[in-house]
Amino acid sequence: MEGVQARRRGGSGVGDHTGGPGGDDAAADFVRAVYAEHGSALLAFITRMTGDRAQAEDVLQETLVRAWRHSGRLGADGRPLRPWLFTVASRIVIDEHRARRARPAEVGAETLEQLPASNELDRAMESWQVAEAFRALSPEHRAALVETYYLGRSVAEAAATLGIPPGTVKSRVYYGLRALKLALEERGWAT
Question: Which CDD domains does the UniProt entry name for this protein (predicted)?
Fold first, then answer.
């Protein structure tokens, strides 16, 4: 670090450079010196932050580009350069993380292949809609429909299981189906 600072104060012309794309050899020399002195520690730090060596190298490169752009101001006041570099690198990592979270995840072809076919989706959606409407029924209507439609029992078997007369089972099934249809229509799922 002292080497970079000494070059900055030593009148190499770097302190007068404004940085940026039209930079001169002094700015390039400054960035080379920064990389030689801080590159390995900075790369290790960024790799620990990201957990990805390739991403860490990209962040290191962007950090050095920013150092090059600000080479005219860096180190001219005698403050250490290392904290500035680590702060810039940290902020780049944070910004990239936020940008990734803000973007919707890309869906690849293999993900699309794993999706169920349209008719399977339709069946799943219909099942969910019926289950939602089914929960809106009274327990008596629900029990009569479960016994007759879902379990496939006859009216007599359902009556024996539920402990009610067969006529009551018929009535509950009839009114339960009407209530189910109405519940589906109220939700906009049936016509």
Answer: Sigma70_r4
Task: State if pTM tops 0.85.
Answer: no
| Domain 111-186: CATH class, spelled out | mainly alpha
Using one digit for the tens of pLDDT, what is the confidence trace for 107-153?
Answer: 666 665 665 566 676 777 788 888 888 888 999 999 999 999 889 99
Sign of the C-alpha dihedral, residues 75, 78, 83, 84?
negative
Element (H or E) spanning 185, and its range? Answer: helix 166-186
Provide DSSP, 17-33.
Answer: ---STT--HHHHHHHHH
Tell which CATH classification among 2.60.40, 1.10.3470, 2.30.30, 1.10.1740 matches the domain 2-102. 1.10.1740
* End-to-end C-alpha distance for the chain, whole angstroms: 76
CA distance 180 to 135: 9
